[in-house]
TrEMBL record:
This is DoxX family protein. The chain crosses the membrane at residues 12-35, 76-98, 110-129. Keywords: Membrane, Transmembrane, Transmembrane helix.
Length: 430
């Protein structure tokens, strides 16, 4: 009885969670096929779901819903997850009352295993490919000139992973391997086991570095454990004893052998297609070229209204450095960061016109977020010599400024110049 009730609840809960997750990932999968029109439909569905979720958050959970943000730990997502739990509990009670005499569900169990394997495999392909093709944790030039004490815990983890691309790729390959094993019926148990290991690490990092993916990673960990539950005794026998594990004969999806062979081919083809689509989507993001002026520039001379400004730490207008970087997760093609004398940052999204030597800043980006506020700032630039840059603005914060820069070599920073050494006589722990 307990097993049947547990199966009904898990099927209801993970079925709803998997459906919502697949709908959320559909625009990303479509983008891998070159179709960039999926987000509008998802946003409409989220808009329809917002009123009941917002009411539940306000009156039952004491949470504030400020957006329909999913794939994070937003109030909207936590409340949606709570409602999925409530609906699953209600569905379990109704199912148990209406179907209380059925002794087991071999065929339904087989189909739910296939569905949940693919829900988990899609997630592993998506997150794994974002690391194997390093787009999830990109290296950000700002981190080379930002004081370590200003980093958030998430910023520390992102920077630590991004500085070692082989490590990030290895993390992604482990998740991709779990997804591939999940797709193949004969190796699905090994895939669920590897996925449980991967997600345990991810969940632990999310909890200890305060990363806003706690809901997502915890659900994928629970789903991988649910897939492993039927094999718990056999795994215990293999890992913790010298006895032989008994063979398991799962119920087939169909009664016909031919239909089962077709189902196997369909699973393999679908898995290969999902892997390819996520790969294409991340490869397109990875292929973005470095923007014009990409690099770190340090101020050598700064003036406003034609008068030089001394490098005083109390000067709120004077710049210290300018960093031009790739856009990563913002809408503009270029990110320009201004570091002031007190090491504070202003981050802007914009575009560069190399033909006219213009930098147009369109958005100011809130520190530590990707929230964009529209602005209109125009800078002009030119090169007086190799490794030198001049930036002028007729109106920056109400001032006419002139700035003269020297370009810094990112590889000269200790974080990047060290490289790898087999032989080390002394520790190099700066």
């Amino acid at each position: 009885m307990a097993t049947r009730i547990g199966f009904r609840f898990a099927t209801s809960y993970f079925g709803l969670f998997g459906l919502v997750g697949v709908i959320g990932l559909t625009p990303i999968l479509l983008a891998g096929l070159g179709i960039d029109t999926g987000w509008a439909s998802v946003h409409r569905m989220l808009g329809l779901a917002r009123p009941p979720i917002q009411w539940t958050a306000t009156h039952l959970l004491g949470l504030r819903v400020t957006s329909t943000q999913v794939g994070s730990d937003s109030g909207f997502q936590w409340t949606a997850l709570f409602l999925v739990l409530v609906i699953a509990l209600i569905a379990t009670v109704i199912w148990s009352l209406l179907d209380r005499r059925r002794p087991c569900y071999p065929r339904l169990f087989a189909w739910t295993q296939v569905g949940f394997r693919f829900v988990l495999a899609i997630a592993m392909f998506y997150f794994g490919m974002a690391k194997a093709i390093p787009t999830q944790m990109p290296f950000v030039l700002n981190r080379l000139v930002e004081p370590y004490g200003n980093f958030s815990p998430e910023g520390v983890l992102w920077s630590q992973v991004s500085v070692s691309q082989p490590y990030e790729i290895a993390l992604g390959v482990a998740e991709l391997l779990a997804g591939v094993l999940l797709v193949i019926p004969r190796t699905a148990t090994a895939g669920a086991l590897l996925c449980a290991v991967d997600m345990t690490q991810v969940f632990l990092l999310n909890m200890t570095y305060d990363i806003r993916l706690k809901t997502v990673s915890s659900q994928f960990l629970l789903l991988s454990l649910f897939l492993l539950a039927p094999h718990a005794r056999r795994l215990f026998t293999v890992l913790c004893s010298d006895r032989v594990a008994p063979a398991r004969r799962p119920a087939p999806l169909f009664t016909s052998a031919r239909a089962n062979r077709i189902a196997l081919v369909a699973q393999l083809v679908t898995g290969l297609l999902l892997l390819a689509v996520t790969g294409v989507q991340n490869w397109r993001q990875w292929q973005h070229p470095a923007p014009e002026l990409y690099g770190i520039y340090e101020i050598d001379h700064f003036s406003s209204e034609g008068y030089a400004r001394d490098p005083l730490l109390t000067d709120e207008l004077r710049w210290r450095r300018v960093v031009v970087d790739r856009p990563f997760h913002v809408t503009d093609p270029v990110v320009l960061t201004i570091q002031h004398m007190d090491d504070s940052f202003e981050i802007y999204g914009g575009s560069i016109d190399p033909a006219r030597h213009l930098i147009d800043l369109h958005h100011r980006i809130a520190l530590g977020t990707y929230a964009e506020t529209p602005v209109r700032v125009r800078l002009t630039y030119w090169w007086p010599g190799p490794g030198l840059l001049v930036i002028d603005a007729d109106d920056y914060a109400g001032h006419r400024i002139h700035a003269y820069f020297k370009k810094l070599d990112p590889q000269a920073f200790p974080l990047l110049e060290r490289g790898f050494s087999w032989v080390q006589e002394q520790p190099y722990n700066r």
